[in-house]
Hints:
This protein is an alpha+beta fold.
Amino acid sequence: xPIPSTVYRALLILALSAGSxxxxxxxxxGTLPPxxxxxxxxxxxxxxxxxxxxxxxPSPSSSGASSAPRRQQPTPTATAPAARATQPASRPAPxxxxxxxxxxxxxxxxxxxxxxxxxxSTRPPxxxxxxxxxxxxAGAxAGAxAGTAAASSRAPEPAQPLPAxxxxxxxxxxxxxxxxxxxxxxxxRSDQVNMRVGPNTTFPIEWTFQRRDLPVMIxxxxxxxxxxxxxxxxxGWVHQSTLTGxxxxxxxxxxxxxxxxxxxxxxxxxxxxxxxxxxxxARIRECEAGRAWCEVQVAGHRGWLRRNExxxxxxxxxxxx
Length: 321
């Protein structure tokens, strides 16, 4: 549709008055775009800070609860720390306990030395018992048929006291079964050793020894049987399987001494390691021939005893473990 002449004229007048050609929108060929006015330069404005997103409102539950937002918890004010500040910062420290006064060096040196320990009881244990007790009767019934019942029915005999002097030693000889010298010492292998009146199980039991490692003296042999003598002088026959070659000694103080000092060396002036009471069994470590002292060990204590203070070693015997 052609543009009306009146409109065309009006547009032409406006273009001439502005000093510019037709706008590009008109689409007139060969015309230039009108000049744009220069814009004044301004300082760049800072980017606006985005507002914080509101807290999400919980969606209503399937039970049909109200969708109203929950009541916000009150924000703690600045007065709470101030209120806490009024409390005491820390508990008062307890009063310091005065340190005990240290003893002078002179008083510390005057402290009495530690006493050596005592080994053994005031009442020595019994080395043997009569077979009239329950254990002795059981051992007698298992050992023999004839004569055993009579021995088991015998009333128990009291333990014999230590003799004033040991019985004399038998004449030196050689055992017919082993070829070893007689007399010699051995030790009991267990806490239950029956001593019979003869070298056979048909003989009745005379005593039952009840101390392991008790030293006994072998004074006779017959096949697999050994005639022994204990510290009290009681003699009888035991089987060779009930003896061991381990050397022990029984502490036997004199009548006027209740204890024997175990010395740290083979002399009377040596310090005391322990004090041994009568009836204590010691393990012999070494006894030199012709020497008056023997090295022994008792309950973890190692020291020296005189040969005549123990029973279990011959006067001139040499023992080395």
